[in-house]
Design brief:
With 531 residues, this protein is α+β, with helices and mostly antiparallel strands. Among the domains are: 139 residues, 3-Layer(aba) Sandwich (UbiD C-terminal domain-like); 80 residues, Arc Repressor Mutant, subunit A, CATH 1.10.10.10. Helices cover 27% and strands 22% of the residues. Strand 19 and strand 20 form a beta hairpin. The protein is elongated. The mean pLDDT is 87.
Length: 531
């Protein structure tokens, strides 16, 4: 199946993850309908527009996994492989995205079915555009940025946060020149995930898309600007970020942090061309969850990398939904002395990560209760909590004071080492495991069918207490045994007989418990100690 937007829709449909809505739908209703569905939605009859609208395509881990061609927990590994083996894009002469080309006075952004999302949005927002720009020194850069419709050929662009596109724009503005950009809408998840990755300056994120594909991503030359676009996108906008600076109000918008943002001061973009397939489908990436799910594997890939470089053996990593798949990392490690602190510092070095929790590999990082239990039982705050002041921040953090013009506040970062302390015996953390756990099934005991119970309290046991006592003493001559070990040694014997025999042997002074709680013959050296 083709690795493009339509191929991805076909994959969703084949896996029963796409519902087609043919009933007439108003754009005002799309944002409220998407969260009600357990599938992605394709609206084929949008009032006032000729283009269908797709949304919710990445609004679950399963859908993202389908798009990435890997189980969700293996996406970050696939991304890391792509980063280690990038594939440069190739230029193609023929591009489906150029089947229709509108320039000059034919440019009208309001012909696109760009929906409204929240009740406080500043205007219709393009949310799924892969923005490509080039710099004479640093080369090509790709990222995802929202664009608010302002006029038929003017949008805002949110690049208030320090990033590579902002750097490109600042360098162009210093020369009083606009920065040409292309905006590809309706692309495969490979391009969406790759362009969401925050690569170092000078690294082309589209090479990661090629690595994910296993072949070069096809780009087509620009028609009105010297910047290419993704050749098989559904819709492409060509434009220029105007060299006016961060002076125009843009927003508000529903942000990835699941809160309403505020007005940002941002540059504007003049759109010079709109290009699209003959029968395009508009993709409205739904905020915030589609945005959030893409972020998690990206930060997880970064986490695996920095832990490897720190020499820490990680076993599981979760960039948590509660932290907006952006700010919080829980990492399980196979610990050597000092690894908890090293892991904490390594993960806090990742841009935008705010809080980190390190746990042992017996903790399920995807179970919030298990993680909280580790914090509750393994942490002494004065020993295991690290706070770093004046670190780089994400301005959308509502706990920070509002940024002043041209200045972004710094943040505090926190790490929690919730691993078992080196000076505490690990047996203090022995988990409860129920006898016969995993070996019996409740459904065998429900209903009116036969039950496994074979005897009653009125029936005579098949073995005397004295005989059982002799068998227990013989077993204890070989090794010390917990009471449940004795039950396991004699699975065909009556429970009551075993319990009575143990009680009688103890009463007669023939057996005692050792320091671990196991039974042993009286007179033997007592091994182990209570902790």
């Amino acid at each position: 199946m083709a690795a493009n937007f339509r191929g991805y829709l076909d994959t969703l449909k084949k896996n029963d993850e796409l519902s087609v809505i043919s009933k007439a739908t108003d754009l005002r209703d799309v944002a409220a309908l998407v969260p009600q569905s357990d599938k992605a939605l394709l609206f084929t009859n949008v009032r006032g527009y000729s283009m269908p609208v797709a949304s919710g395509l990445l609004q679950s881990r399963n859908r993202l996994a389908l798009g990435m061609g890997a189980a969700y927990e293996k996406i970050e590994a696939k991304l890391r492989t792509a980063m280690d083996h990038p594939v440069k894009p190739k230029r193609v002469a023929k591009a489906p995205a150029k089947e229709v080309i509108c320039t000059k006075n034919k440019v009208d952004l309001y012909q696109l079915p760009v929906p409204i999302f929240s009740v406080m949005d500043g205007g219709p927002m393009i949310t799924a555009g892969v923005v490509i720009a080039e710099d004479p020194e640093f080369g090509m850069n790709a990222g995802m940025y929202r664009l608010m419709l302002k006029e038929k050929n003017i949008t805002g662009i949110d690049i208030v946060t320090p990033n590579n596109l902002r750097k490109f724009a600042e360098r162009a503005f210093q020369q009083k020149k606009p920065l040409p950009i292309s905006i590809s809408i309706g692309t495969h998840p490979y391009e969406l995930v790759a362009s969401t990755f925050k690569a170092n300056l000078g690294v082309n994120e589209l090479t990661f898309a090629g690595g994910l594909r296993g072949q070069p991503l096809a780009l087509a030359d620009g028609e009105t600007i010297p910047v290419p676009c993704i050749a098989d996108a559904e819709i492409v906008l060509e434009g220029e970020i105007l060299p006016e600076g961060w002076v125009h109000p843009e927003g508000p918008f529903c942000e990835f942090n699941r809160l309403m943002g505020f007005i940002h001061m941002n540059p504007r973009v003049r759109i010079k061309a709109i290009m699209y397939r003959i029968d395009p489908i508009y993709y409205a990436l739904h905020m915030p969850w589609e945005n959030i799910w893409m972020s998690a594997p990206i930060y997880e890939a970064a986490a695996w990398r920095v832990l490897h470089e720190a020499g820490v053996q990680a076993t599981a990593i979760n960039v948590t939904p509660g932290g907006c798949c952006h700010w919080h990392i829980v990492a399980a490690i196979r610990k050597q002395p000092g690894d908890g602190k090293n892991a904490m510092m390594a993960l806090l070095s990742i841009a935008d990560i705010k809080h980190v929790t390190i746990v042992d590999d017996d903790i399920d990082v995807f179970d919030p209760t298990d993680v909280e239990w580790a914090v509750a039982t393994r942490v002494q705050a004065d020993r295991d909590v690290l706070i770093v002041s004046n670190a780089r921040s994400k301005p959308l953090d509502p706990s920070l004071p509002p940024p002043t013009t041209g200045k972004i506040p710094t943040t505090a970062k926190m790490g929690i080492d919730a691993t078992i302390p080196e000076n505490v015996p690990r047996n203090r953390y022995n988990r409860i495991v129920y006898f016969n756990q995993g070996k019996v099934d409740l459904k065998d005991y429900l209903g009116d069918g036969d039950h496994p119970v074979k005897t009653s309290s009125n029936e005579k046991p098949s073995e005397t207490v004295d005989a059982m006592g002799e068998r227990i003493l013989a077993a204890l001559e070989k090794s010390h045994q917990f009471f449940p070990d004795l039950l396991a040694l004699f699975p065909k014997s009556d429970y009551r007989t075993i319990a009575t025999a143990v009680g009688r042997l103890h009463q007669e002074g023939k057996i005692i418990q050792d320091g671990e709680g196991k039974y042993q013959l009286k007179g033997e050296p007592v091994l182990g100690r209570a902790s």
